[in-house]
Design a protein that fits this description.
Layout (H helix, E strand, L loop, with lengths): L1 H8 L13 H8 L6 E2 L24 H4 L1 E12 L3 H7 L8 H4 L3 H6 L2 E5 L22 H9 L3 E3 L9 H12 L6 E3 L5 H5 L2 E5 L2 E9 L20 H11 L5 E7 L10 H12 L4 E5 L7 E5 L5 E5 L4 E3 L9 E12 L2 E17 L3 E7 L5 H6 L9 H11 L11
The chain binds zinc ion.
Amino acid sequence: MLNFFNGFLQKKYSAKRVVLLAFIAMFFFAGCVGKPIEIEAPKASPKVLPPPISIADTSRKTPREIKEQNITLIAVGDNLIHKQIIREAKTKNSYDFTPIYEKIKPIVQSADLAFINQETPIAGEAFGYTGYPSFNAPTTLGDAIYAAGFRAINHASNHSMDKGKKAILTMIDFWKKYPKAIPLGIHASQEDRDSPKIVSIKGVKIGFLAYTYGLNGIKLPKDSPYLVSLINREIMAKEIDALRPLCDFLIVSAHWGNEYEHTPSKQQEKLANFLADHKVDLVIGHHPHVLQPAKWIEGKDGAKTLVYYSLGNFVSAQNKNPRMLGGMARIVLTKRDKKVSLENAELLGVVTHFEKGYTGFKVYPLSDYTGDLAKRHALSKEKLDINYLQKLYRSVVSKEFRADSAP
Ligand SMILES: [Zn+2]
């Protein structure tokens, strides 16, 4: 594993290093935090991407210099559960969504921590199973994404309130059955909202916050304004500044942007700059349902922030070609001599596959998607083919972030 990542780090675009931590701050604040959730990497399945050749010259390194820890983080976009997907998951007595994720699971499980934007509620039977425009899916959808390896699950989206406050509280309760799951962006109380969401992996503390631009016109109940984290700079500044000194690496999930646009909006760019000014290390963007670029931006103190503007769809029953291509952010953090740095960042392609009559939903890494599969895609009649997907990937994702295996 280490060799794999050592090689990974030596790639031509591995130069961006950001020193992320005033370590003294950690010692000062460590005592104030609740115990971070200790996450073990889900059991890795066989690698699906070819390991890059290691060109590291370790001959002159002292043992102390070699002692370093690598942590891989993965993030994917909109898990958008339309009624066709629920129908397809129906079994005799329940709903089984696990086949959707079986092709992507090996990559997800190869990471130390994986994030997903759960765009739509998964509050279970009591709230009715519905699709657009007011969604809700069986709780077994949550079981399936957990089994696929996702641990950080964003619930702050424009659909958070589709089934109201009770559904949100039900989802928070649902995740309690998985002590290592970290539901983000929804909160049972102000106290719950104020408790830092920090995951400790190999001694590195990773902090999360998550916000959405709105709730499709639904207002938060007056007695529970904490329920869903909305984009509000005043509150965000307070929450980010409180969490920043408690973690080594700070991630903000942002549900933002204009639907179906491949270019970030002015508002996204402005908010990204605001986040950079507040020393956020990584921004994971979603909501547009199509892929937008990844970019490095600089905060006012000169520190760098990596922004994935939109990871597009992960799975959906939408039926337009550009919405079939999503993205998977994959980054490697390295802890070396007590410093944490971001060593490598990629934006891999993922494909939502389904066939005629909205059957056989599956997410594939673009690198594994074949011409034959594309021929079976329901949208092949709309000229969706492998060339279209690869061309779209290359037109949105700059070389710096492309996968090794990208054509
Ligand atoms: Zn959305």
